[in-house]
Each structure stands twice: as structure tokens, then as C-alpha cells.
Amino acid sequence: MAVAISSSSISRKAFSSPEDVINHERRGHLRYNPPPMTPTSHHITVNNLRIHYTEAGSGPPILLIHGFPTSSHLWRNVMPELAKTHRAIAIDLPGYGLSDKPVDAKYDFEFYEEVLNDLLDALGIEETALAVHDLGGPIGLFWAVRHAERVKQLVLLNTLVYPETSWAVKLFLIALRTPGVRDYLVSPKGIVGAMKFGVVHKDRLNREVLTPYTAPFEDAAARQALIKAGSGLGIKGLAEIARKLPTLEASVRIIYGENDRALPDVAKTMQRVKRDLPGAEVTSLSNCGHFLQEDEPERLGQLMAEFLNRPNPAQQPAADLVRAFNGWAENDLDITPAAVTHCSRQSLPENPRELMRLIPEVHRTFFDQAAGPDFETLDFTTPTRNLQTFDPTADILPPPEDSPAGQQAQSKATAYFNSRPIHLVQATGTDTAGDLNITLLIALDPQSSQLFTFITALSD
Question: Degrees (nearest 5) of the Cα angle 148, 451, 280?
Fold first, then answer.
């Protein structure tokens, strides 16, 4: 029989890595080791650069971007809360942390844009939530406004956004161009001073906390790269962010520490963001400075997780439908209910033949990497029907009369699909041995960017 597989966002990986999958049973159950809640260290090569990142959890991804002079280490105590429901990834930007620090790199907006694009591609991530801080703000925002289709949600912490900067930012840039002063700023002693300047709770910054920030900059070449990384972002990139930010469709959450001596005008900046993006929700934390990840990491993690897990009203009917089918499978294991997977993306092409090109990418990836070798071959046919309505009674296995859960699932499906123009596609496949057959009915809702797969047959 088929069982329901829980809904997930579209990704090129259904799990955080193929190694997480332990076993695929022919009854349809998937069992896997959940990734750890505490961050683990990884390296990956993109654009001939060795990039370090930390990762925790599984589920929809969120990319965490630090600023000057920090690294992924800044997010270490925020990630466990996010990892309960998300795949949290914190990058060390080139020039920082344990990533490469080429002294001949430009470290401009386009440089970092290419790094972020290639990193996400290498990790198999098509769409992601994004959280940015300090100089990671303009780096992440520049990428976001140029690749808005890849951004699902956005979290802004204490960060730069606009080309009109405060006296403190101007002074910082002058310091990075002044011999002697700049050498101190990027030295281990200067980095310790910057961290203590940016927090309220200085007593929490002991040697164990500070060493991962300072250790990467013991040699002169690394410090030279940090100078370039801190001063390489041009005013034109900030102007492009200011121009395009109001058009961003992702949901936005603003959380900032009020006692920010590095960015003393952060409140005004976030008020302007709120005017540009009226739907943004703003929270200020009175007991936090610039590095709120060090001052109140658990509280910050809770606020971010609450936002990330908040259902999108436009997608709630689809989520309710999937929940109903999951309930059917869980309550009536002795029958053969149709299982359903659900994916959503910010945009789907409206032409059904263009939609066909999306289906193999999504479902081959799911079955190949998550379900295992039993589904190594899936043949996707041309669209069999394009209907204005979708009758679950006729198109999906009907539930028995004595199955309340099945009746509820059918009712939810009828209400959903009868109110939307739906494209239907038949997909069939068999395992390599030829003794396991699967039939999928794929319903595509281009208006609300939802894609459903109903497993209508699974047999030996």
C-alpha cells in the first residue's frame, strides 16, 4: 500500500544528504537519521574557493550570513532552535572565518553574488529563507533582489541596507583605509575589541567564545584579505538594493538590538525598510547590542523560528489538504489510500508542457535520493489531461464509506481542486528489477504555485 509522505518545499534534495536515508520499505515508509541539532562543520569548493560552512537540522533551508569581522561561529547558539524544523546553513564568507581569503579577490557585490549562487547550487538548494547581519546584510540583500525567485523568507538583523550611511559607518570605512588603524582593526586584539564594543553582555565573551573569531587572522595575508572584504562593497550596490527592495515579494521579519553602537541609526534604517516593505514585522530587543546573536541567541532563535514556521496564508489550503491525506494513511493502514506529496515554489510556468520539464527534476530527485534504488527509473509521460476541475472521486482512489479520515481527505481535495484550474499529468515507473510498479497522478496548480503528487498505485 502507499502511505502519505509529508509535505516539503521544493529542493534538489529531499533530505539533507543521501547518507541520512537508512532504509526504504516497500510499504512506502521512509526511515532516516535526523541530522544533529548542533552545528557541524563542512567545506565545499565553489568557484575555486574553499568555502567553510556549518549546518544543523533538516527541512526547508535557511541561509545565515554574517558580517565583519565574524563568521558562521556567530550563529552557533541560534542554529539549534532553527534546526528543529529547518536545515540551517551558516556560511563563512570568503575573506572570513575558515573560508579561503585570496588577497587578489575584489570582494565586491558581484563577487559575493556569484559565491552565494554557486554555493546554493552545490548544496542542491533552489529556494531558501535568508537571514543577514552587519555587512552580510548588503551582501545577502544584493543577491536577494537579483534572485528574488530563490528567496522565500527574509530576516533582517542589525545591518546596513541603504546607501545613506551613518557617521559611524563612514568612520569605519575611513579607518579601514588608514594605515596603522586598519592593521589594528583586523588584528586579533582589534577583533576582540570590536566584539566587546558590539555587545551588552561583555562577560559572555570569554576566550573560548572569542578564539574562533580571532584565530583565522593570525597571519598578515588573512588580515589583508579582511581589510579588502570589509571595504570592497561599493555604493552602487547599495543603491541597487534601495531601488529594488520594495519589489521583493518574500515575507520579511526584522529583529534588531536597540543598543547598537556600531550602527547607531539601526532603528531609523528598519523604519525605512518597514515603509518600503509594509508587510514586514519589526521587533527590537532592548537588552541587545549589535551582535544580538551573542547577547540573546536563544531568544533570537525563537523569534526567527516562529517566523519561519508561520504558515503562508496563500499556502494554507494546500497544507490542510496534505494533512488530511496524511491522516487518512495513518488511520487506515489496512486499506490502500492515495498518498500525496506536496511542493510549492514562488512561481510555476503556466504552460502545462513547460510544467512537464519541472516534474522530472522534482520527482526523480525525490525518489532517487530519498526513496532509494527501488525507484531508479521513472518514465514521465506527456500530459494526459488538462481539466478545469479535478474530481478526486474519479481521479484518485475513493475512500471506503467507513473511513472518516478518508472521507475528510476526499472532501478537502474536492473543495481545493474544484475552485482552481488544474493541469493533470500521468507518471508511471518501475524499479530496475521490474517487480515493483508505481503510478503517480500529478496535479499542478499554476495560480497558487502548488504541485501535488498522488500515489494512485503501488504494487508488486
Answer: 35
Q: Indicate where the chain has its CATH 3.40.1000 domain(s).
A: 316-459
| Terminal Cα distance for the chain, rounded | 10
How far apart are alpha carbons 376 and 31 in whole angstroms? 18
Q: What is the largest CA-CA distance in the chain?
A: 81
Where does CATH 3.40.50.1820 sit in the chain?
34-308
**pLDDT at res. 171:** 93
Q: Cell 546596513: give the residue.
A: 160
What is the CATH code for 316-459? 3.40.1000
User: Within 10 A of 99 (CB to CB), how many other CB atoms are there?
Assistant: 22
pTM: 0.66
Element (H, E) at 256: strand 251-257
108-132 pLDDT tens trace: 999 999 999 999 999 999 899 999 9
Rounded Cα distance, 117 and 147, in Å: 9
Q: Tell me the HSE value of 147 on the side-chain side, using a 13 A CA sphere.
A: 21
| Residue-wise DSSP of 63-101 | EEE--TT--GGGGTTTHHHHTTTSEEEEE--TTSTTS--
Fold annotation for 34-308: Rossmann fold (3.40.50)
* Residue 409 confidence (pLDDT): 75
